[in-house]
Amino acid sequence: MESPAAQQRTANASPDAPTSRIKRVVAASMAGTVVEWYEFFLYATAASLVFGTFFFPSSGSPLDGIIAAFVTYAVGFVARPLGGIVFGQIGDRFGRKPTLQATIIIVGAATFLMGCLPGFASVGYWAPAMLVALRFIQGFAVGGEWGGAVLLVAEQSPNRSRAFWASWPQAAVPVGNLLATTVLLVMSFILSPAAFLDWGWRVAFWLSAVIVLVGFYIRTHVEEAPIFLEAKKQVEQEKATSFGVVEVLRRYPKGVIQAMGVRFAENIVYYIVVSFSIVYLKVVHSYDTSQLLLALLIAHIIHFAVIPPIGRLADLIGRKPVYLTGAILSATWAFFAFPMFDTLNPVVIVAAVALGLVFHAGMYAPQPAVMAELFPTRMRYSGVSLGAQVTAILAGSLAPILATQWLKDFGSWLPIALYIVGACVITSVAVLSLKETRGISLRDIDAADAERAARGK
C-alpha cells in the first residue's frame, strides 16, 4: 500500500489528465448506478402504465388508480432519507465500496420479488401492502446508492475536471431508465394489451437478477479514494466521533440546506417530465403505450448524451452559471411542452420530452460536484445523502401525485407549470447562495474543516 505521502503525490500529479484509475472508478460507479436506477425507474414507468389497474381496485376513474400507484411510488422516496442516513454513516465510517455493494444487492432482491407479486384480483389488499413493503426496501437501498456512487468518482477526480467525471454516474441514470423503458417497450410490442397487463410487465422486474450480478461483480474491482483513506485514518487516530448525520447537521447546517435547495427543482422537473408526461398523454389523449415508451426511449438517449458535456462546461465556466441556466430554462418547459403534447405528433412529443431532459441536465450534470464541494471528506457521504434524499420526499415523491391530482381537479396543465416555476425559483435562490467552487481542491476543504474544528467552531 502507498504511504500517505505517495498518495498525495499521486493525487496531485497531472491534474488535467484523465487517468486509467479514474476511468475504472467511473465504469464501476456507472455499472452499479445503471442497475439500481433501472430498477427504481422501472417502478415509475410501471406505476404509470400497469400498477394502477393491477394492484388496486377499480373506482371508475383511471386517474384514481394512477394516483394510488404513485402514492406507493412515493413510499420509496420516504424510505430514501432513512437509507441515506444509515448508508451515509456506514459509507463515511467503513468506506464507499462495501456500502455500494450492499445497496445493489438489496435493490435487486426487492425488485425481483415485485415481479412475483399477485394482483388485487387474487389477494385483495394484500397485493398493494406487499408492493408498499418492497417499495420501501427498494427506496431504502437507493437512498444510500446515489451519494456513494457520485463520491466514489468525485473524490478521485482531478480538481479541474471534477464536474465532468462526476457527471458520468449521473449519465448512468438515463441509461438505467433507458433499459427499463426498452424492456417494457419490447414486451408491449410483442404482447397483447391483456397479456402485457397480466404478466408481460413482470419480465422486466425478473431481469434485474441478471443485471444485479453484473453490476455487483464490476463493483468488487473498484478502489477507495486515497483522500477518503487518509481522512478515515486520521479520524481513527484522533479517536474522534466525526461521522454521521448529527455531526454534519451540527457543523454544516448551511451546506445541508443548500444541497436540499439545489436538488429541489431538479428532482421535481425530472419526475414531471418522465412520469407525469406519460399520465397526461395516456389519460387525456389515450396515446398508444408503445409510442409513449418509444418517445421516452429516444429522450433518454438524448439525456445521456448531453450530461457529460454539460459537466465539462461546469468545469470551464463554473458550477453556478450552468446550474442557474438549467433552472431558468426548466421553469419555461411546461408552458410549451404541454401544447406540444396536445398536437399528438410523435416527433413533436419526443422533442418536448427531450427538451425537458436537456434543461434538467443543466442542473443534474454539475450537481455531484456542487454537493461534494460543500462538505469535508470525513462527513461528505452523510451530508450529500442527507441533502439529496430528504429533498426527494418533498420534491420527486410528491411531484407526480400533485400533478395527477391537479389534472383531475382542474383539467388543465397550468397549475403544474406554475408548480415547476415555483420549484425553479427556490433552486435558483439556493444556487445564488453558493460560493463558486470550480477547480477547488477537496484537500483544501478538509484543511479548512480541520482548522475550523481546531478553533472549536
* Contiguous helical run count: 20
Share of helix, binned: over 70%
Model regions low in confidence, pLDDT < 50 over at least 5 residues: 1-17
Shape: globular
**Mind describing the biggest β-sheet?**
none
- Count the E strands: 0
**Structural class of the helices, strands and pairings?**
mainly alpha
Order of helices and strands: HHHHHHHHHHHHHHHHHHHH
Mean pLDDT, rounded to whole units? 83
Q: Using only CA atoms, what is the Rg?
A: 21 Å
* Proportion in β-strands: under 5%
Terminal-residue CA separation: 35 Å
Write the layout of secondary structure elements.
Blueprint: H1 4-12, H2 20-54, H3 62-94, H4 96-114, H5 120-123, H6 126-154, H7 162-190, H8 193-206, H9 208-219, H10 226-238, H11 245-251, H12 253-285, H13 289-317, H14 319-342, H15 346-364, H16 367-372, H17 380-394, H18 399-410, H19 414-432, H20 442-454
Helix pairs in contact: 2-3, 2-4, 2-6, 2-7, 2-8, 2-9, 2-12, 3-4, 3-6, 3-17, 3-18, 4-6, 4-9, 6-7, 6-17, 7-8, 7-13, 12-13, 12-14, 12-15, 12-17, 12-18, 12-19, 13-14, 13-15, 14-15, 14-19
